[in-house]
Amino acid sequence: MGTAMRIGQTPSAVRSRCDVAPGRGIFATMHTPRLYDRSPLAALTLGLLFAACGSDEAASTGATDAGATGGTPAPGGAGGGPEGGAGGGPEGGAGGSAAPDATAPPLDASAPTCDDTHPPVVMAHGLLASGDTYSAHVRRFAANGECPDRFHAFDWNTLNRAHDHAGDLDAFIEAVRAQHGAEQVDLVGHSAGGGLGYTYLANAARAAKVRRYVHVGSGPMMAPAGPEGGPAVPTLNLWSRADLVVAGEDIPGAENVALETEDHYAVATSPASFEAMYGFLRGDAPPETTDPTGTSGADGRVEVAGRVVILGDNTPDAGSTVEVFALEADSGARQDDTPEATFSIGEDGAFGPFEADTGTRYEFLITSPRAGARPVRYFHRPFASDDRLIYLRTLPTSGLPGALLNGIPFEDAHSVVVVYLARGAMLAGRDTLELDGENVATEAIAAADDTTIALFVYDEGKDRMNAGSTAAFEAFPFLAGLDRFIEADAARTLTLRFNGVALDIPRRPSGTDGASIVVFD
Fold first, then answer.
1. Distance between CA atoms of residues 469 and 210, nearest Å
2. Which of 118, 244, 258, 500 is the most buried (most CB within 10 A)?
3. Which residues touch 45 (CB under 8 Å, ≥6 apart)?
4. Any idea what DSSP says for residue 218?
5. Alpha-carbon Rg of the chain, whole angstroms?
6. DSSP3 helix / strand / coil % (the chain, rounded to 5)
7. What is the torsional sign of CA 222, 227, 233, 236?
8. What are the C-alpha distances in Å from 337 to residues 113, 228, 412?
C-alpha cells in the first residue's frame, strides 16, 4: 500500500504524521506498539477500521444530526454499505445527511435571555463516537449565557471508508446556515472528525463557509486548515501530551494549545479543553465558568433530549421505543412500572424533550424492532442541567461491532453490564471502578495506552467463574471486556462505584432484559 493522502489535499501542504506509515492508519500515531501486538483477527480488524488517521477515508455512510435541536432526514445518496440498505449503513439505515430541525421543541436554554449573536458551531466527533462527545462543552457554553440551539453535532459513521462524508458535512453546514441565517459557521473536529475537517476545508468554496476551525486531538498537520494556495482558515490545534492514541504536536501557523494530562477522549471534554476552545472562538475572552451545570435546574427541573442510534455506525434505530422510568435512590429499582414518558423513534433517531427532576435517577429502556436486537437499559446519575445531547446507543447485530457483541452470551442466569465513562478514559492506579466493592480498574483493563472508555462485563464462558480481561475486545480501541459472573436477580442490587461515585442497578437477567449500561458523566 502506498502512502495515504487525504482526498482533495496535497502531501506538501497538509500531510499528517498518520500518513507516513502505510497500512497502519490511525495507529501510526501511537506512542507505543502495544496495539499492534494482537491476534490475526485483531490485525484484520484494525486494518479494516483504521486505514487513515482521522481522515475522511475512515468514514462511513450517512451523517445525521443530534444538532442541538434534533434532526430531520434530508436528501442524501446511498452510501453503499455492506448490508445494502437504504444508505448502506451496517444495519441498513438511511443514508445522507440530516438537517437540523428548526421546529424541534426548544429546551429551556433557548429562552430569549441567551446570547445568539455568535456564529453557529458544527461539531464532528471521532472514531466510534457520537455527538455526545460535545455534551459537556455545549452545556458549558450555555452556562456562559449562550444559546445551546446554536451548537450542532454532526453524527457520521466512522467505520465505512467509502462514503463522501465531506459532502454530507457540506449539506449539513448549509442546513445550519439556513436555519440561523448565518453567513459562516465555526467548525470543530475531534480525532477522526479532525481529519474530516481538514478534508472539508481543503475545498475553497467550502472553506469560505467556516469562520474558525478547532482541530482537537487529531494529530499534527503541515499547515492550518484551508485550500492549497488559498487563505487558511484560522485554526486552533488543541492536543494533549498525555494522549496515547494520537501523537500531537504544534501545527506551524496555527494557534496551538497543548494540554498536559488529558487522554485522547478527555482532550475533547475537559474543562481545560473548553477554556482553550472558548478563548479561540470568543476572541481570547476567558469563560465565566467551566461548570457544565450552570444555572439550569434551579427550579429542580431540567429538560433532556437526544438520539437513539446503533453503536458503531450511528444509524438512527428507527422504530425503537424509549420508555423512561423514575428510580429509587437507594436501590436503582423502579418507583413505578408505569413510565414517566414514552417516545417512538423516527427516522432521525430523536427523542425528547423529557422533563426530569434533578434529584431523581432514571432508567431509559430502549426496545428495538431489529431482528436479534437486545433490549438496552441506560442508567445515569441525576441530570443537573438541561442536556439535548443524550445518546442512547442500541447494540448492533451486523458488521464488525455486531460480530464482536454477538459473542457476548445473553442468558437469564447472569447480567450483562456495560460501564461507559462519558468524559475520559479510566487509568489503573489513578482511577477506581468497583463492582460490589471489587476494584476492576487494573492494568489488564485500564492501562494508559488502552484508553478504555467502555467496559463490557459478562460471563464469558458461561461457567459462572471470574477471570480477567476478555481477548475479544482487544481488537478494538477504547473498549475492554471483563469476565465476571454477575448472578441475575432483579430483586438484588449491583453497586458500581467510579472514583467514589456510586450507582446502584438491579441485577437483571440478560437473556430476557438485555444489557444494562451505566453512565458515569
1. 44
2. 244
3. 400, 475, 476
4. S
5. 21
6. 20, 25, 50
7. negative
8. 38, 60, 21
Host H or E run for residue 363: strand 362-367
**Cell numbers at 421, concatenated:** 465513562
Q: What one-letter code names the amino acid at 208?
A: A
Query: What's the CA gap between 264 and 242, in Å, rounded?
Result: 8
| Cα-based angle 320, 322, 325 (whole degrees, multiple of 5) | 160
Q: What percent of the chain has pLDDT over 70?
A: 79
Residue whose C-alpha cell reads 445518496 in the numeric block: 77
Task: Give the closest residue to 493 by CA, choosing from 323, 327, 325.
Answer: 327
Name the residue among 404, 458, 144, 379 with its Cα closest to residue 279: 144
> What pLDDT band is residue 265 in, cutting at 50, 70 and 90?
very high
Determine how β-strand 185-190 pairs with β-strand 121-124.
Answer: parallel
Say which amino acid occupies 483: D
Cα 501 to Cα 151, 293, 438, 453, 496, distances in angstroms: 30, 17, 14, 16, 8
Alpha-carbon distance of 266 to 453, in angstroms, equals 10
| pLDDT, tens digit (0-9, with 9 covering 90-100), for 329-362 | 888 999 999 999 999 999 999 999 999 999 999 9
- Residue 316 CA to residue 66 CA, distance in Å, equals 10
Cell of 460: 464469558
DSSP E strands: which ranges in 20-145? 64-65, 71-73, 98-100, 121-124
Q: How many CA atoms lie within 13 A of 220 on its CB side?
A: 18
Cis peptide, bond prior to residue 477, ω within 30 of zero = no
**Closest-CA residue to 51 (of 6, 8, 84):** 6
How is 407-460 classified by DSSP, letter by letter?
A: TS---TTB-EEEEEESSS-B-BTTB-EEETTEE---HHHH-GGG-B-EEEEE-T
419-446 burial, b at 16+ Cβ within 10 Å, e below that, comes to bbbbbbbbbbeebebbbeeeebbeeebb
Phi, psi of 128 (to 5 degrees): 65, 10
Q: C-alpha cell of 164?
A: 463522501
Q: How many CA atoms lie within 13 A of 238 on its CB side?
A: 31
- Could you tell me the pTM of the whole model? 0.84
> What would the mean pLDDT of 156-167 be, rounded to a whole number?
93
Alpha-carbon 147 to chain mean position: 22
Which residue is it, cell 460471563? 459
Cα–Cα distances (Å) from 311 to 91, 141, 307, 401, in that order, read 10, 27, 12, 8
Q: What is the β-pairing status of strands 121-124 and 151-155? A: parallel
Q: Measure the CA–CA gap between 188 and 21, rounded to whole angstroms.
A: 26
98 beta partners: 73
